[in-house]
Design goal:
Strand content: 15-25%
Distance between the termini: 39 Å
Mean pLDDT: 90
Helix content: 25-40%
Order of helices and strands: HEHEEHEEEHEHEEHEHHEH
Number of helices: 9
Largest sheet: 5 strands, parallel
Shape: globular
Structural class: alpha/beta
């Protein structure tokens, strides 16, 4: 292709890369829930509608179990639940994924944190360069596809010095997706043991965080997470690339 044709293609396509990964908000995205304060009706419709048991009363949503299907919002007769397009939902502690409505008479709602408390030690060590190794431990490939997208021309996470590597021996962080099946138990352990110290575990998606739709299934073995708690939780089913990107940047205290 001639240089003139290449320039024509570039002009037609316009700017593909998002200029700011921090400010971008996808249209139509089911993101962090907003819960309206007030008394619930005499029903548990939202709880019954949730396929993963993420919703509980008094009204609260566990983002680590949530599939963001909107079933609870559609079932609530008082319209107390709304899924916004806010992508920043990560947490450094499991309990940080709980979104709870204010009590009756209270103002607002306690939402899952939108700014992760940065880990200063990790920021000093990996703030300029972080290498990621991804393992799908029984995933459906939805999370894996979104994780692949963080390196494409639109999101281009490499601009922040964060990139995927092919070998765990070159990795600083293990990005774990999937529900952790028995068949992948040894593979996950081998990958983790092959990584040099210091290293970080990142749990991505409802399946990795809680088991998701497969919680309690006979084919799971989640003992690895009992031994190695994640340093970062990225909720979603699957998480949007911006959710993953913002969570990692927050952890490293990056602007």
């Amino acid at each position: 292709m001639s240089l003139l044709k290449l320039l024509g293609v570039r002009r037609a396509q316009g700017q593909q890369a998002l200029p700011s990964l921090r400010e971008a908000r996808p249209l139509g995205f089911h993101g962090r829930p907003a819960l309206r304060a007030g008394d619930c009706a005499a029903c548990d419709a939202c709880v019954a509608a949730c396929p993963t048991g993420a919703v509980s009363l008094p009204l609260a949503i566990d983002l680590g179990r949530c599939t963001f299907c909107d079933a609870c919002a559609r079932a609530c007769p008082d319209a107390r639940i709304e899924l916004t397009n806010e992508v920043r939902m990560g947490a450094t502690r499991r309990e940080g994924l709980l979104v709870a409505a204010a009590p009756p008479g209270g103002e607002g709602a306690r939402a899952a944190q939108t700014r992760i408390r940065a880990d200063r030690a990790l920021a000093r060590r990996f703030g300029r360069s972080l290498k990621l190794r991804q393992v799908s431990a029984g995933g459906c490939n939805a999370c894996e596809l979104e994780l692949n997208a963080v390196a494409n021309v639109n999101f281009d996470l490499q601009r922040h010095g964060i990139e995927w590597v092919a070998s765990p021996r070159h990795a600083d962080a293990l990005v774990l997706s999937g529900a952790l099946t028995k068949g992948m138990r040894d593979a996950v352990r081998l990958c983790w043991d092959a990584m040099p110290e210091p290293k970080v575990l990142i749990a991505v998606g409802a399946c990795a965080i809680s088991g998701g739709l497969y919680d309690g299934a006979a084919g799971l073995d989640r003992s690895f997470l009992d031994e190695i708690p994640p340093s970062l939780y990225v909720p979603g089913c699957p998480p949007h690339p911006l959710t993953f990107i913002n969570a990692v940047l927050d952890l490293l205290d990056r602007p």
